[in-house]
Amino acid sequence: MASIAVCPGSFDPITYGHLDIITRGAKVFDKIHVVVLNNSSKNPLFSVGERMDLIKEVTKDIPNVSVDSFQGLLIEYCRSINANAIIRGLRAVSDFEYEMQGTSMNRILDENIETFFMMTNNQYSFLSSSIVKEVSKYGGDISELVPATVEQALSIKYQK
């Protein structure tokens, strides 16, 4: 049986921290589905379609990565594609506390889908999409935080 993992997130926008987790996960699993969450409680800068397009562009050279979106329970999405794993990136202890709650609930919903936590590369341990948007909004240099495609998309959004 192929190992199929889901790497969910809002990816608003995708950063080098996200790419670190996706790239490393792609070395471990046969197939990685990077899945954009459509979270109605958040007010994203990019539409789901725009985020998917950015992810497709920056992962185009990773052959076992595909990009999708979903709304609803992550476990239901995993079941729909026969995924047997979820990959979650961790930056700090505070991430673990939050992720443990979701993982515990997912285990109750389906004990056959495992969650794997990956520590992000130390150089990205501070990095979040929110901080990237904030720095970009005020004209700061984000070239070491996101791929050029994402940097350009942010520049267009903020009309720099």
From TrEMBL:
Amino-acid positions noted as binding substrate in the UniProt annotation, renumbered to this chain: S10, K42, L74, R88
| Catalytic reactions on record | (R)-4'-phosphopantetheine + ATP + H(+) = 3'-dephospho-CoA + diphosphate
Domain (Cytidyltransferase-like): give its ranges.
Answer: 6-134
User: What are the alphabetically sorted keywords of the record?
Assistant: ATP-binding, Coenzyme A biosynthesis, Cytoplasm, Magnesium, Nucleotide-binding, Nucleotidyltransferase, Transferase
Q: Which GO terms describe its molecular function?
A: pantetheine-phosphate adenylyltransferase activity
The UniProt record gives the binding positions of ATP as S10, F11, H18, G89, L90, R91, E99, Y124, S125, F126, L127, S128, S129, S130
Q: What is its EC number?
A: 2.7.7.3
Protein origin, superkingdom: Bacteria
Q: Which Pfam families match?
A: CTP_transf_like (PF01467)
Main EC class of this protein? transferase
Q: Which NCBIfam families match?
A: coaD_prev_kdtB, cyt_tran_rel
Q: What does this protein do?
A: Reversibly transfers an adenylyl group from ATP to 4'-phosphopantetheine, yielding dephospho-CoA (dPCoA) and pyrophosphate.
Q: What is this protein called?
A: Phosphopantetheine adenylyltransferase
Q: Which organism is it from?
A: Bacillus seohaeanensis
